[in-house]
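Quick note —
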Amino acid sequence: MPELPETETIARDLDREVTGARIAGVVVTRPDVLREVDPEMLARRVTGSTIERCWRRAKLVVLDLSTGDRLVVQPRFTGALLIDRGSLPEHERLYSTVALLLSDGRTLHYRDIRRLGTVTLMPPERWRAYSATLGPEPLDASFSPAHLSGILRGSKQAVKKLLMDQRRIAGIGNIYANEALWRAGIDPSREGRSLSPDEVERLHAELTAVLREAIAERGTSFRDYRDASGERGAFAARLSAYGRGGLPCPRCNRRLIATDAIDGRATVFCAHCQS
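Predicted structure written out below.
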């Protein structure tokens, strides 16, 4: 699933490429991805509006429209927002679920092979209520080690599960929770309340560092993630834990352990390095 670095990459690409563009029409070929709006209502409320800003919140890509509405896209596992200048490969167009026809002749497709992602049109009050259910952004200046400590302190839940709880911290998924904990040398299964102040400080530093590094590499691509131009992210080559179960630990050379014991999600860690 695209996480913070991937959706940040998409949002930055779109903000650079389509901000200021006018939406001349909408084509919905797979209405099951729509939420809180039907195809007719979407076309009526979006057509003629201008895209004023593209940005990210948590794992969402948000398009601010001149009408005040926000088009909110959650790509999930196989979703992508792709700019088509007339040269998009046919196999990508084949899985287009919603297409925004721009007045300059380009098309912005929401492509989703398995159609597990969603496209929602939210008026301002609905967006405010929805955004309020999400936790703080880990790359905001206000997200300090003390803030992270407050999230972990008093909880018996596994620290990895806490990092991935979107109500507590926005945007972190399985890939970067695994990586941050490996870098910080912390066992993913430890209770949040068990971390010392020094460990929280270290986890905060490694979490923010890995997110920034992944953004610089335009995200992590294994199978389906693509940026707005259809290109793959390059951070997979720099992963130390995620997807490397059974391989040597880059730090101590012992075998990395893979388990689904924490919340049913794939967790990879080093029993020697992470305590």
